[in-house]
C-alpha cells in the first residue's frame, strides 16, 4: 500500500506574531492556558499521520477541535506554522505558490460543508470551474464536467443554477466539482454536515458506492462519530488540535484510547461498526454425507448446541442437539437437517442481519464464495451491541447478562 | 476673552495661495494641460456623434434600450421626454450635456473600478483611499472650481474634470463594498481549485459584485448630472449654461426650461442604469413581461410623486 499523503508534526497557531505561543506549545502548556495568557489560539498541535492510497481517512472531532483548520492546511488554504505535508513529492507547507497551485489543480480538490457553489454560474460551469482555471479548452472541459455530473446523477440539471437545487443536490454538485479535475486526493470538510439526516444518510451510502468505483484517497472531516465509523477505513479522533487516537472503527469502539474517546463511543450505533465476521465464532460442521453419530461426536468435541451441514464448504443445512438426539444414530444428516439455513455475508453490518437473527436460528457467516467461515447467534449480536462502559472483559458481560 | 489668535495667527489662505499660484501653476500647468487631452478627445468624439445623429434615431435607440432593460412604460416615457425636450428647443444643449455626462461617467468608471478593486484587495489601500473619498465628498465643489480654472483653464474639459472629482467616490465605494461582500467561502473554494488572484477576480468577485458596482455607477451618474449647472460656471456648455444664463438675466422661463431638460435626462438615464443594475432574467417570458409592466408602472408612479 502506497502512502499518498504524509503529514509530519504539523502545527498551526493563530495570532502568534511574537512567537511566544510557539514557545509555550514546545513547553507543553495546554491550549486553554496559552490562550488565556497570551491570546494565541492553538489550532493544530503537532499532528502527524499518513494517508494510504485509496482509503477514506476520517478526521473526527467536535467543533473547535481544529479539524477544519487541519484540512485547510493540507491544501495550503491556511498555511501551517510548522511541520511538513507531503503530497507525493511536494511539501505543501513549504513549496512555492506555483507548486501549491499545481497541487490544488491536479492532485487535491476539496468539497465544502456549505457547498460553496458559485451562484452566478450554471451547475455545469460550477463543475467545470476547476478545469477552467487550469486552462482546459471549453469543449473538453464541458465534456469532463458532464461525465463528473453523470457520476453523481445530476447530468440532467447541468443548465440549472445552484439556487434552484435542493441542499442534497447542491452537495452532489460540490462533489462533482471536486471530482471533475480527477484529483488523486479529495478533501471533504464536513460535506454532509449541512444536510438533513435522511439526505445525509443517502449521501453517505452514495459516497460508499462511488468510492468503490473511484478508489480515490479521501480525507473526510466530520463531527459525527457514526458517520466516521460508517465511512472511515481509518479514523483519527481529534481534540484540542491534537490526535487522541487513530485506528479502524473496530479499534476505536472496542479499545478507546482514553476517557474522551470512551465518552464518544458510549452512545454510538454499534450495529453499524461491527460486521458479522467481527463477532462470528468458529462453526462446527459435518459434511453432507455424514451420519448422525458423526454430528453428535463433533458437537461434543466443540461443545456446541448446533452444527452446520456443509456441501463443499457451503452451508446446506442445520442441526440442533435435540434434532440429533431424537434421530437414529445411523441416519444420514442430510435426511434430518433443516435445509436452507439462514446465512449472512461476512462483511454485513450487524444492523443488516437483525431480520435474519429474528428467527432465533444461528446465522451461518459465509465468505465471498459462499463458504462457511463462522456462526453468529442472537446472543452474540446482543453482546456486541451492549456498551462495555462498566465492564472489563467478556466474563463480566456474561455476568451482567445473568 | 483670550483666544488662541491673540498669540498666533496662521495665514492659511496666503499659504494656499502661494502653494497654488507659486508652485502648482508655474510648475505643473503643462502636466495638467496634458491631462485634459484624453478627456477632450472622448468628449469631442461623443459630442460630434450626438450632434451628427438625427434626433429621431437617438430617441429610438434610447427607447429601445429602455424597453429591453426596463419595460415598455419606460420606453414610452423616454420617447415623450425626448420629444418634449426637442419641442422646447433644447435638443442640441441636451445632447451636449449627455456627451459630457457620458464622458465623466466613463472616466469615473475607468478610474473608480480599478481603485475600488485595489481598495477591496488590501486593507492598507482602503485606509489610504477612504479619507481621500471622505474629503472629496465633503469639500464643496465651489472650493475646487478656482484651482481647476487656474490649472486647466476654462471650457468643457475643466468642467468635466470637476464633475469627475465630484462624482468619483460612489463608484469606488460601491466597487470596494461589492467585492468585499463576496462570500468568503466562495473565494476559498476558488483558491482550493488553484485559481490565481486575477482568475478569482474575473470569474467570481466581479460577477458577484456587478450589481453593487452598477448601483455605484448609477450614483456616479446622478452626481455627474447634478454637477452640470456648477460645471457651466467654468465654461462647460449644455443645459447648465441655459440655466445659468436664465439665472443671470432673471429669466425664470429659460432657467426652468433648462432645469426640466436636466430632470428628464436624469430620470431616463437613472431608470436605464438601474435596469442594468437589476438584471431580471424573467422578462424573456410572457408572464415575466406582463409582471414587469405592472412593476414598472408602480415604479414610475412613485417617481412622478418624487418629481
Automatic annotation (TrEMBL), chain A:
Enzyme class: translocase
CDD domains in UniProt: ABC_Pro_Gly_Betaine (cd03294)
Topology versus the membrane: Peripheral membrane protein
An example Gene Ontology CC term for this record: plasma membrane
Keyword Mitochondrion: no
All copies of domain ABC transporter, residue ranges: 29-265
Location(s), subcellular: Cell inner membrane
InterPro entries membership: AAA+_ATPase, ABC_osmolyte_uptake_ATP-bind, ABC_transporter-like_ATP-bd, ABC_transporter-like_CS, CBS_dom, CBS_dom_sf, Gly-betaine_transp_ATP-bd, P-loop_NTPase
Biological-process GO terms, alphabetical: amino acid transport; glycine betaine transport; response to osmotic stress
Catalytic activity: a quaternary ammonium(out) + ATP + H2O = a quaternary ammonium(in) + ADP + phosphate + H(+)
Keywords from the UniProt entry: Amino-acid transport, ATP-binding, Cell inner membrane, Cell membrane, Membrane, Nucleotide-binding, Transport
EC annotation from Swiss-Prot or TrEMBL: 7.6.2.9
GO molecular function terms attached to this record: ABC-type quaternary ammonium compound transporting activity; ATP binding; ATP hydrolysis activity
Location, primary (coarse class): membrane
Family classification: Belongs to the ABC transporter superfamily.
Subunit field text: The complex is probably composed of two ATP-binding proteins (TmoW), two transmembrane proteins (TmoV) and a solute-binding protein (TmoX).
NCBIfam families (alphabetical): proV (TIGR01186)
Name of protein: Quaternary amine transport ATP-binding protein
Organism: Cohaesibacter marisflavi
TrEMBL record, chain B:
Top-rank lineage group of the source organism: Bacteria
GO molecular function terms attached to this record: amine transmembrane transporter activity; carnitine transmembrane transporter activity
Location of this chain's protein in the cell: Cell membrane
Transmembrane parts of this sequence: 49-67, 74-92, 98-121, 142-172, 222-243, 249-269
Membrane topology of the entry: Multi-pass membrane protein
Residues covered by the ABC transmembrane type-1 domain: 94-273
BP GO annotations: choline transport; glycine betaine transport
One Pfam family this sequence matches: BPD_transp_1
Record-level GO cellular component terms: ATP-binding cassette (ABC) transporter complex
UniProt KW keywords: Cell membrane, Membrane, Transmembrane, Transmembrane helix, Transport
InterPro entries (UniProt xref): MetI-like, MetI-like_sf
Family: Belongs to the binding-protein-dependent transport system permease family.
Classification via PANTHER family: GLYCINE BETAINE/PROLINE BETAINE TRANSPORT SYSTEM PERMEASE PROTEIN PROW (PTHR47737), GLYCINE BETAINE_PROLINE BETAINE TRANSPORT SYSTEM PERMEASE PROTEIN PROW (PTHR47737:SF1)
Protein name in UniProt: Glycine betaine/proline transport system permease protein
Amino acid at each position: 500500500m502506497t502512502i499518498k499523503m504524509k503529514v509530519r508534526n504539523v502545527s498551526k497557531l493563530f495570532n502568534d506574531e511574537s512567537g511566544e505561543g510557539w514557545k509555550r506549545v514546545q513547553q507543553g502548556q495546554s491550549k486553554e492556558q496559552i490562550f488565556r495568557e497570551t491570546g494565541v489560539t492553538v489550532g493544530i498541535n503537532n499532528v502527524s499521520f499518513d494517508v494510504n492510497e485509496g482509503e477514506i481517512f476520517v478526521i473526527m472531532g467536535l467543533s473547535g477541535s481544529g479539524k477544519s483548520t487541519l484540512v485547510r492546511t493540507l491544501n495550503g488554504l491556511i498555511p501551517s506554522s510548522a511541520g511538513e505535508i507531503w503530497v507525493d513529492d511536494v511539501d505543501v507547507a513549504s513549496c512555492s505558490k506555483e507548486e501549491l497551485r499545481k497541487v490544488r489543480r491536479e492532485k487535491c480538490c476539496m468539497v465544502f460543508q456549505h457547498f460553496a457553489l458559485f451562484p452566478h454560474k450554471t451547475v455545469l460551469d460550477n463543475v467545470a470551474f476547476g478545469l477552467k482555471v487550469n486552462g482546459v479548452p471549453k469543449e473538453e472541459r464541458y465534456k469532463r464536467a458532464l461525465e463528473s455530473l453523470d457520476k453523481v446523477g445530476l447530468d440532467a440539471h447541468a443548465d440549472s443554477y445552484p439556487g434552484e437545487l435542493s441542499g442534497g443536490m447542491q452537495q452532489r454538485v460540490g462533489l462533482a466539482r471536486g471530482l471533475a479535475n480527477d484529483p488523486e486526493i479529495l478533501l471533504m470538510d464536513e460535506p454532509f454536515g449541512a444536510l438533513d439526516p435522511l439526505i445525509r444518510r443517502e449521501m453517505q451510502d452514495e459516497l460508499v458506492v462511488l468510492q468503490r468505483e473511484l478508489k480515490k484517497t479521501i480525507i473526510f472531516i466530520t463531527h459525527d462519530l457514526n458517520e466516521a465509523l460508517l465511512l472511515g477505513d481509518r479514523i483519527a479522533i481529534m481534540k484540542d488540535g491534537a490526535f487522541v487516537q487513530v485506528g479502524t472503527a473496530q479499534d476505536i469502539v472496542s479499545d478507546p484510547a482514553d476517557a474522551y474517546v470512551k465518552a464518544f463511543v458510549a452512545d454510538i450505533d454499534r450495529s453499524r461498526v461491527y460486521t458479522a465476521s467481527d463477532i462470528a465464532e468458529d462453526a462446527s460442521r459435518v459434511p453432507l454425507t455424514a451420519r448422525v453419530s458423526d454430528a453428535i461426536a463433533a458437537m461434543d468435541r466443540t461443545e456446541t448446541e448446533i452444527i452446520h451441514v456443509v456441501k463443499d464448504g457451503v452451508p446446506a443445512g442445520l442441526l440442533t442437539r435435540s434434532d440429533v438426539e431424537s434421530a437414529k444414530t445411523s441416519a444420514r444428516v442430510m435426511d434430518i437437517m433443516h435445509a436452507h439455513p439462514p446465512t449472512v455475508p461476512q462483511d454485513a453490518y450487524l444492523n443488516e442481519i437483525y431480520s435474519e437473527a429474528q428467527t432465533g436460528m444461528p446465522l451461518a457467516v459465509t465468505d465471498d464464495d459462499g463458504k462457511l467461515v463462522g456462526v453468529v447467534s442472537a446472543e452474540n449480536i446482543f453482546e456486541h451491541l451492549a456498551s462495555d462502559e462498566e465492564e472489563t472483559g467478556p466474563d463480566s458481560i456474561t455476568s451482567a447478562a445473568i | 476673552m483670550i483666544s488662541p489668535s491673540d498669540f498666533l495667527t496662521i495665514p492659511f489662505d496666503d499659504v494656499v495661495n502661494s502653494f497654488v499660484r507659486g508652485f502648482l501653476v508655474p510648475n505643473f500647468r503643462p502636466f495638467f494641460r496634458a491631462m485634459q487631452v484624453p478627456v477632450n478627445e472622448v468628449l469631442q468624439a461623443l459630442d460630434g456623434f450626438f450632434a451628427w445623429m438625427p434626433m429621431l434615431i437617438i430617441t429610438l435607440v434610447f427607447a429601445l434600450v429602455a424597453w429591453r432593460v426596463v419595460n415598455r412604460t419606460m420606453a414610452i416615457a423616454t420617447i415623450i421626454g425626448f420629444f418634449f425636450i426637442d419641442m422646447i428647443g433644447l435638443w442640441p444643449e441636451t445632447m451636449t450635456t449627455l456627451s459630457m455626462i457620458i464622458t465623466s461617467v466613463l472616466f469615473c468608471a475607468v478610474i473608480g473600478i480599478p481603485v475600488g478593486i485595489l481598495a477591496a484587495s488590501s486593507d492598507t489601500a482602503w485606509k489610504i483611499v477612504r479619507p481621500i473619498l471622505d474629503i472629496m465628498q465633503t469639500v464643496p465643489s465651489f472650493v475646487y472650481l478656482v484651482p481647476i480654472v487656474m490649472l486647466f483653464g476654462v471650457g468643457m474639459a475643466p468642467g468635466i474634470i470637476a464633475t469627475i472629482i465630484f462624482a468619483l467616490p460612489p463608484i469606488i465605494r460601491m466597487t470596494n463594498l461589492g467585492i468585499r461582500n463576496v462570500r468568503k467561502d466562495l473565494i476559498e473554494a476558488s483558491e482550493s481549485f488553484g485559481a490565481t488572484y486575477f482568475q478569482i477576480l474575473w470569474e467570481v468577485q466581479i460577477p458577484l459584485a456587478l450589481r453593487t458596482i452598477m448601483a455605484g455607477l448609477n450614483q456616479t451618474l446622478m452626481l455627474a448630472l447634478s454637477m452640470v449647472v456648477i460645471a457651466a460656471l467654468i465654461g462647460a456648455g449644455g443645459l447648465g449654461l441655459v440655466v445659468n444664463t436664465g439665472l443671470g438675466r432673471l429669466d425664470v422661463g429659460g432657467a426652468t426650461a433648462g432645469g426640466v431638460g436636466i430632470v428628464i435626462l436624469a430620470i431616463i438615464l437613472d431608470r436605464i442604469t438601474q435596469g442594468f443594475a437589476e438584471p431580471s432574467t424573467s422578462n424573456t417570458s410572457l408572464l415575466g413581461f406582463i409582471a414587469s409592466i405592472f412593476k414598472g408602472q408602480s415604479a414610475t408612479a412613485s417617481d412622478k410623486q418624487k418629481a
